[in-house]
Each structure stands twice: as structure tokens, then as C-alpha cells.
């Protein structure tokens, strides 16, 4: 390949779209939680943020990136930051100021509930949903709230030139929801012109501070977009492009293939650069060719995967870049998306199997990969270009594959027959009360688990401590008056990692933390080979809990789709095949739980919506295998065994039919923040099984009153008859404390009893 022309035309050789912000040792998590708990003040939290930002900027500059992003740091969420930046603050929070207002919007306070929270496209990252109405008047925030300007100047003071990153105006409005009091027919997109005026002011101020480039993230462009929305895109970037004083503009898309109409409008606009994801969106090459390329523009080519942990195939990345050279004037090598979605440093993982470790790259290693590809292209460095491709997955299990081939139709019996059989076997009241699974994990529980991992306590001591906690949780639930109990999951570190550590084909990290929302960080396991269950995983704990009470105790499992969505998954075979392998392992676990006398088994699938393809044309095939995997796992039980599932923090409208197709006997869903909207949607879609809409938002520290929960239940009863309505929180209680948990559950039980009495009367 002739790279001589590239040496004279590349202006920004390498960059990334974003970087993790939690810190290598989760410094941001601990500092934020200290602030919430009153153990540290705002100044201490601000200093931690400044230290983390400086460390990232310095690291990226010293690594050799040609362009370093800024404003990718956040104390909670970048969409929430945008709402604060443009003063899209609902009136109920305006009596608060500074960080108190910011965190109240994210988490709520006792008298004020938080904004809604949902998944960021098809990832496990959660964003705070903007709440907008026709009276919303955007204006640029001042002082510390004007983050892009403050952080650009902060980096510049360190001698580091950065490219500020903003959520693009179109994506921001398309992710927003109308305020509860907004008139029917109002759409957040109606506010585009006013929002673009504020963006124009931000750009002008950044230019005045010396910023040469600004990155505007528009991932919404890889989903299906209407002609009206494409016109809005053109209107926004025509306005911003015509500013007389502004930085150069880079519009970044990621998570898939941009629509041809959107790319055509960007190609005609005055923006100077466009970012495309060639990992999740290999079709971007064809779209780019179909619109005639990007003459007189820079293409930021996402050829290093920002969402998975496999080492880049540099030969493929280089070949992709080579195929783009004739379609653009300038080329920049980049990650496919922000590195927010991967752990920070592989070097910290000293205990991983060398064969698996040799195939991995985390954020720091991916930065090096981007630089290596860029150097190979611009300087003709053969060593980087000829790096071997990622090895194929190992560990083929013929037994697993043969069993899957032998299983026939995965269906359960008639719903009405099952309903009657379970009602007689379980003897539960209408509006039965339960929780989603986990109970608070106290510092003592975490110390015991850490002690067991470190070898400081014996297996017998660990088992005794866990059983003591289970006994305490069972006794508490009986005292509270809950109808269906859980064992509390004290032995579980995470709902995916716990199972991954017991299944063949998975590897777990020690320090591979990734932000899920706010201070919630997870360590996604790495699924690298065929999956099999060598032994039972939950039966001992569930049966012990059941031995302590006459009330039914739920067995708790994580479903096959979520086991994939919240892991880093092998990419050498279709996801559908991997999902069936996980489902087969869960099917065996469910059979053992049922044989041990567990009469209710919950198989959680909170990620069912998360993995839904962004393009409608791709969704039927996904839902077919996703639903099939769940049914494969759950279809082997008797009619008297009740199967539950749980889903949370997603926009469920596009999978309403799939929720019914799972054929779980009871589905519990997040509903408190969205005021029971989903219940009516399910009813309209013909959903006929049990439903447990969450009446308590557990991601907020506030304790909802019994009357508030009653109101939610009465809303639900407008769409669901009492015999099918369950009463539960939105999600597991792992992150909550016992005082708020006990108070909230007492209110929940009181609300259920009061409404139950009214229904009976």
C-alpha cells in the first residue's frame, strides 16, 4: 500500500472518542459515596475529579495520541451533565444548588423523586433521561456547571490541548422524554432551535478559549431515523456550521451503521469531520461509498473495538483504513466508540489464564493499538501492521453441542392450566408481595467474601457466615409480612459474575471494573469458550433458605441473554449459539432446583431490551433467538413450578411482544420512575400472565411512603386484575442500606394490604 500521500494529508493521525472516568482503583466511586454519606465535602470530591481528569489527559498525551478528548469525565452521567449545561432542570429541583441539585436529579431526595434512568443505546451503561416540556427554556449554565469550558481550560492550564466532547443536540433531544405535564403531542425535538442556540454559544466560548476542535456525539444516527429527524439534523448543523467564530466540528457516530440520508446531510454540511464505527458497523464502508465519500472532510475511522476486550486484528484494521483512503481527504484512526465500556488496564490482571490474557486489550492497551495502527499507516511500520490476528476461541465442548442438537421444541403447557395449578400449589393471596432477589450487602458480608478469596477464613467459616446472613434475611422478611421470600444472595458478588465463575468457558477479572451508572461499577466476565455447568451453582443456598420457612423461597438465576449482555463475549461464533449454550447450563440448574423442592424460580433478563438491535430490520432475528434461549432454559419444569423473570431500566415498548413470548408465569419490571406506563402497554399488547410492576425505585436513597406505593398499585390495577398483579420493588436491594430497605418494605407491605382490602371489599 502506498502511504506517501497519507503522510502529507493526515492532520490528526490518532485519537479516541472517550476514556473511562472511574479511576484505576475506582477512586471516583469511593469519593462520591463519601460525599453522599457526609464523610467528605464538595471540595474533596471536586479534587478527586480534578486529579482523575489530569491523570487521564496526561496519560493519553504521553501515550502518543495526536488528539486527546476532554469533557468525557462526569460525576454521574454525560447526558445529565448536558441537561445541567443547558439548564434543562425541572422546577422540582430548583430549590437545590450545585452538586446537591445535580445528584438529586440523578438519585432523588426524600421529598423529590429522581429523573428516569435507562440504557444508553444497546449497552449496559445507564443515562439520566432529560425531562422536557414546551416551557423549557434552554440557556447556558455558568461557572462550574459549564463543564466543557471549565475542563478545556483546566487541561490547557496543564499544557494539554484537548478536544471537548458534547452529546450532540439531535441525540440529546431524541433521548429525552416529555415532562409529565406536557400537553399531548409535544415532542422534545420541537425544542431543537432553542437548544442549538445554546450549543452555538458553547462553541463560540470554546473558540474564544482556544479550542481547535469539538466532538459532537450523535449515536442516534445509527438507529432508524425519520425524514423529519434527518431534516432536524441538517438544520442543527447548518446553524452550527455557519457560526463565524467556532472550533472545527467532528460529528461522531457509533454502535452501528449510519443511515445514508444522515451521512449525505453531514457530507453536505460545514462540519469538518465525521466519525464512523467500522467495528459494530462494517456496513459504514458501503454507506460511505454510496454517498460519494466525504470530500474535503476528515473521516475519524473507528477500527479498534471500544466495547469488547479482544485484542485488535491490526491487519484487518489497517486494511479497513486502506479501503477508505479513496473516499475521504483525511483519515484519523480511532476507537469505535468511547472506551468507557471496557476496563482500564490489562496489566492489573495477573491471575488470568495466559492463553486468555494473551487475546485481550483493555482501555490502555486499546490506546496503544490505535497508535500502532496510525503509525503503521502514516510511517509504514510493518511490525504493527503484521501483528497476528486475534486467536480463535478454544475449548470446544462436543457434549454440549450434541445435547443442544438433541433438544426439541422448548415450550411449556397451556397458561391457564399452569395458572390454576400454581394457585393451588402455592396458595398465595392476590397482590402477592415479594422482592427481586438481593438484600443489602453490608460491609461485614463483603469482608467475609474478601476474606474467603484471600484465604484468611476457611470454607466452613465462610459457609457459616453466609448461612447466618440468610437466616437473618429470612426472619426479617417473615417479620415484614412478605408472601414470597428470597435468600438475599449474600454469597453473590454480581448477578452475572457469580454464575460466570462457576461455569466452564468463562474467565473472571480481579480489577476489570466498568461503570454501569453513577457509582455502580461491575466486573464483566469474559466468555471465551464453549459454556458448560460442571456442578449445581445455587441449590445449596436456596434449599437452606427454604428449610427455614414455610413460605415459598424463590430460586434466583440470571438469564442467558443477560449473561451475554453483561459479559465480554467471544466473537468467533454467532451470539445465538452462545446463548443456547448458556441456556442449557441454566436448564440443568433449574431442574436441580425443582427436584430440591424450590417451587418458584426467577430467571432474570434485565438485558433483553438492551441487546435489541438499533435497526428495526435486525430485530426479529434477535428476538427469535433471545426468546428461544429463555424458553430453552425454563421449559423443562412442571406446571406447578412458577417461573418468574425480571427486567429493569430499559424502554420496553419495542419488546412488548417478546416479553409475552418468554412465557414466564410472572414478569416483574421497573415501573416506579415511569409511573406504571409499562403496565398499560403490556395490557394493550395482550400480555396475559402475572405482572409485578415495581412500586419502589431502589436506585434512589429516598424511602417512598405507603401512600405513594398505593397510588402506583391503583394505577396498575386499571390495567391488570388483582389475581395477576404482584407487588415488588423495581430491582434488587444490594446497593441499599438496611434502615431504608426495612422502612421501604414495611411501606410496601402496608400498601399491598390496604389495596388488597379495598379490592376484596
UniProtKB/TrEMBL annotation:
Taxonomic superkingdom: Bacteria
Binding of L-homocysteine, residues: 436-438, 489, 604
Binding positions (Zn(2+)): 646, 648, 670, 731
EC number in record: 2.1.1.14
Cofactor annotation: Zn(2+)
Keywords assigned: Amino-acid biosynthesis, Metal-binding, Methionine biosynthesis, Methyltransferase, Repeat, Transferase, Zinc
Residue stretches making up the Cobalamin-independent methionine synthase MetE N-terminal domain: 14-324
Known function: Catalyzes the transfer of a methyl group from 5-methyltetrahydrofolate to homocysteine resulting in methionine formation.
Protein's name according to its UniProt entry: 5-methyltetrahydropteroyltriglutamate--homocysteine methyltransferase
Organism placement in taxonomy: Bacteria, Bacillati, Actinomycetota, Actinomycetes, Streptosporangiales
GN (gene name): metE
Amino acid at each position: 500500500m502506498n502511504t506517501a500521500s497519507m503522510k502529507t494529508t493526515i492532520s490528526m493521525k490518532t485519537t479516541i472518542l472517550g476514556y473511562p472516568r472511574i479511576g484505576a482503583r475506582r477512586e471516583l466511586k469511593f469519593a462520591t459515596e463519601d460525599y453522599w454519606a457526609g464523610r467528605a465535602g464538595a471540595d474533596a470530591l471536586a479534587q478527586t475529579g480534578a486529579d482523575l481528569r489530569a491523570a487521564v489527559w496526561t496519560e493519553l498525551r504521553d501515550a502518543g495520541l495526536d488528539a486527546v478528548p476532554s469533557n468525557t469525565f462526569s460525576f454521574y452521567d454525560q447526558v445529565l451533565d448536558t441537561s445541567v449545561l443547558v439548564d434543562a432542570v425541572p422546577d422540582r429541583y430548583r430549590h437545590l444548588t450545585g452538586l446537591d441539585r445535580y445528584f438529586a436529579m440523578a438519585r432523588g431526595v426524600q421529598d423529590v423523586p429522581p429523573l428516569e434512568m435507562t440504557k444508553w443505546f444497546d449497552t449496559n451503561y445507564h443515562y439520566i433521561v432529560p425531562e422536557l416540556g414546551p416551557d423549557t427554556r434552554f440557556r447556558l449554565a455558568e461557572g462550574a456547571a459549564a463543564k466543557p469550558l471549565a475542563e478545556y481550560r483546566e487541561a490547557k492550564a496543564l499544557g494539554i490541548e484537548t478536544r471537548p466532547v458534547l452529546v450532540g443536540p439531535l441525540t440529546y433531544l431524541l433521548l429525552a422524554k416529555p415532562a409529565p405535564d406536557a400537553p399531548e403531542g409535544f415532542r422534545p425535538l420541537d425544542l431543537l432551535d432553542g437548544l442549538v442556540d445554546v450549543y452555538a454559544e458553547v462553541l463560540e466560548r470554546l473558540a474564544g478559549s482556544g479550542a481547535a476542535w469539538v466532538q459532537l456525539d450523535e449515536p442516534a444516527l445509527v438507529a432508524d431515523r425519520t425524514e423529519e429527524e434527518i431534516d432536524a439534523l441538517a438544520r442543527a448543523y447548518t446553524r452550527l456550521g455557519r457560526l463565524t467564530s467556532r472550533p472545527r466540528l467532528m460529528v461522531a457516530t457509533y454502535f452501528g451503521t449510519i443511515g445514508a440520508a444522515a451521512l449525505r446531510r453531514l457530507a453536505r454540511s460545514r462540519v469538518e469531520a465525521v466519525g464512523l464505527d467500522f467495528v459494530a458497523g462494517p456496513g459504514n464502508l458501503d454507506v460511505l461509498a454510496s454517498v460519494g465519500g466525504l470530500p474535503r472532510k476528515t473521516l475519524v475511522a473507528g477500527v479498534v473495538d471500544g466495547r469488547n476486550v479482544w485484542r485488535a486484528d491490526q491487519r484487518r484494521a489497517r486494511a479497513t483504513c486502506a479501503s477508505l483512503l479513496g473516499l475521504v481527504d483525511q483519515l484519523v484512526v480511532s476507537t469505535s466508540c468511547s472506551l468507557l465500556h471496557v476496563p482500564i488496564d490489562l496489566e492489573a490482571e495477573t491471575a488470568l489464564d495466559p492463553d486468555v490474557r494473551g487475546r485481550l486489550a483493555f482501555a490502555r492497551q486499546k490506546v496503544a493499538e490505535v497508535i500502532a495502527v496510525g503509525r503503521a499507516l502514516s510511517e509504514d511500520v510493518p511490525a504493527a501492521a503484521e501483528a497476528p490476528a486475534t486467536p480463535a476461541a478454544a475449548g470446544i465442548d462436543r457434549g454440549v453441542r450434541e445435547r443442544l442438537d438433541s433438544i426439541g421444541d422448548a415450550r411449556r403447557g397451556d397458561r391457564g392450566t399452569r395458572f390454576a395449578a400454581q394457585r393451588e400449589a402455592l396458595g398465595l393471596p392476590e397482590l402477592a408481595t415479594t422482592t427481586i432477589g438481593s438484600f443489602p450487602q453490608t460491609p461485614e458480608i463483603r469482608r467475609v467474601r474478601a476474606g474467603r478469596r484471600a484465604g484468611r477464613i476457611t470454607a466452613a467459616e465462610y459457609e457459616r457466615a453466609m448461612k447466618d446472613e440468610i437466616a437473618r434475611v429470612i426472619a426479617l422478611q417473615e417479620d415484614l409480612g412478605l408472601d414470597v421470600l428470597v435468600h438475599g444472595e449474600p454469597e453473590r458478588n454480581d448477578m452475572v459474575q457469580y454464575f460466570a465463575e462457576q461455569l466452564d468457558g468463562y474467565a473472571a477479572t480481579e480489577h476489570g471494573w466498568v461503570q454501569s451508572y453513577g457509582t455502580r461499577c461491575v466486573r464483566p466476565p469474559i466468555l471465551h469458550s464453549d459454556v458448560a455447568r460442571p456442578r449445581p451453582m445455587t441449590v445449596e443456598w436456596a434449599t437452606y433458605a427454604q428449610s427455614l420457612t414455610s413460605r415459598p423461597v424463590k430460586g434466583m438465576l440470571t438469564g442467558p441473554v443477560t449473561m451475554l449482555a453483561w459479559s465480554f463475549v467471544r466473537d468467533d461464533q454467532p451470539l445465538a449459539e452462545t446463548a443456547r449454550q448458556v441456556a442449557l447450563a441454566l436448564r440443568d440448574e433449574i431442574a436441580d432446583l425443582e427436584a430440591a423442592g424450590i417451587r418458584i424460580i426467577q430467571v432474570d433478563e434485565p438485558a433483553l431490551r438492551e441487546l435489541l438491535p438499533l435497526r428495526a430490520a435486525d430485530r426479529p432475528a434477535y428476538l427469535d433467538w433471545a426468546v428461544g434461549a429463555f424458553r430453552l432454559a425454563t421449559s423443562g419444569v412442571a406446571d406447578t413450578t412458577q417461573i418468574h423473570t425480571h427486567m429493569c431500566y430499559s424502554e420496553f415498548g419495542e419488546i412488548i411482544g417478546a416479553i409475552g413470548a418468554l412465557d414466564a408465569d410472572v414478569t416483574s419490571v421497573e415501573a416506579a420512575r415511569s409511573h406504571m406506563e409499562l403496565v398499560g402497554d403490556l395490557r394493550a399488547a395482550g400480555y396475559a400472565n402475572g405482572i409485578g410492576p415495581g412500586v419502589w425505585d431502589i436506585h434512589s436513597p429516598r424511602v417512598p411512603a405507603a401512600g405513594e406505593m398505593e397510588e402506583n398499585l391503583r394505577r396498575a390495577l386499571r390495567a391488570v386484575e388483582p389475581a395477576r398483579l404482584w407487588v415488588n420493588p423495581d430491582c434488587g436491594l444490594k446497593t441499599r442500606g438496611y434502615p431504608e430497605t426495612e422502612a421501604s418494605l414495611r411501606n410496601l407491605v402496608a400498601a399491598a394490604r390496604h389495596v388488597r382490602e379495598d379490592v376484596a371489599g
